[in-house]
């Protein structure tokens, strides 16, 4: 028995919209036998007013039979392969279960790489160190953009490097 938390961010491309769900099984109890769902419900109802109607409608549309004419994940996986193909032999990780790719720059600090790419190629990435010490030397790149944008970013990165 476990608490399940998920969102529409990755599988439906709803990044920034903040639509998700949590499943707390009624049989999940504290050591004293009190149901965790009661505390969870009280906290959520006190701290969060819920998603707007339009956001909820968008989420329902994604779950409808017409919601996906082609799997969304296929789209960003293809963009990930475009980025990797154009990456000049840099070590690239991730993208398997999400729309983000990690690019390794051995011997360089992630903020230095981020700044150089932003200033010289006008590409916004995220310094890996922002995700913890293991991210040092990496940048995180999103492949959520349009195919043309991913190709253009790849061209700029290739020109910069």
From TrEMBL:
UniProt KW Transferase keyword: yes
Domain of life per record: Eukaryota
Keyword set, alphabetical order: Aminotransferase, Pyridoxal phosphate, Transferase
Membrane-crossing residue ranges in chain numbering: none
Keyword Cell membrane: no
Residues covered by the Aminotransferase class I/classII large domain: 5-152
UniProt-listed InterPro entries: Aminotransferase_I/II_large, DapL/ALD1, PyrdxlP-dep_Trfase, PyrdxlP-dep_Trfase_major, PyrdxlP-dep_Trfase_small
GO MF term set: pyridoxal phosphate binding; transaminase activity
CDD domains for this protein: AAT_like (cd00609)
Cofactor(s) annotated in UniProt: pyridoxal 5'-phosphate
Protein name, entry field: Aminotransferase ALD1, chloroplastic
Organism expressing this protein natively: Glycine soja (Wild soybean)
